[in-house]
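WARN no homologs supplied; continuing
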Amino acid sequence: MTSFEEAETEETVTCLHLTFYHPCQDEKMMFRCLNFCKREQVRADEVAKFGRDSNICRYNLMDTRVSRIQFSLQFYRKLHTSEYCFEIKNLSKKTKLTVNQTELGYLNKTDLPWKCIICFGDYQILAEIQEGESVDYFETHLHLSEAPVLQERCLPCMPSLQPIPENGISPSIFLSQGKSPTEIDENEL
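OK structure emitted
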C-alpha cells in the first residue's frame, strides 16, 4: 500500500461566507478590524459573536452605534439528522435584527437560512452557508461589498414579485406618477 492509500479521508468543512456592506464604510472604516478574503477556523463549540467590544466579540465592528455584542452565531447539528446549521441570536437590547424579513428582538433567535440577508441599522450582511462534514470546527470567510447587498441580491425586494398585466404595463408606473390605474376593456386598446 502507498502512503496515499493509507492517508486519512479528507473531510469537507462547513464554511459561512459573510459579505458586509455599510453606506459609510469608506469614510468611517467600521470594518477595519475584520479579516477579509482569508478563511478563519472557528471551533464547533465556540459561539461567534459580532459587535463593538473586542474583549468579547471575535468579529469587531468599529462603530459606536453598534452594540457591544450585536449578535451571535452558533454552529450545531439538528437532532436525529446529520445536517449542520447555524443559529443566529440578537444580543442587542437597542437594535432589532432582521434575517431576510424575520425581525428578531433582544434574545430572539432563529435558524440561519442557507442564503439570507442580515440587517441591523444601516448594516447589511449577506450570509451564505457552504455545507461540509466536519464536526470539530467550521470556517468563516468574510467579504466586503462596494454596493448594497439588498440591491445586488434582491432578496427582500418584493415589488418585483408583483404580477404584471398582459399589456406589460406595471401598476407601479401609474402610482409613481400620482395616477391610479383604471380598468380598460381589452377591446379598447
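The CA atoms of residues 97 and 120 lie 5 Å apart.
OK
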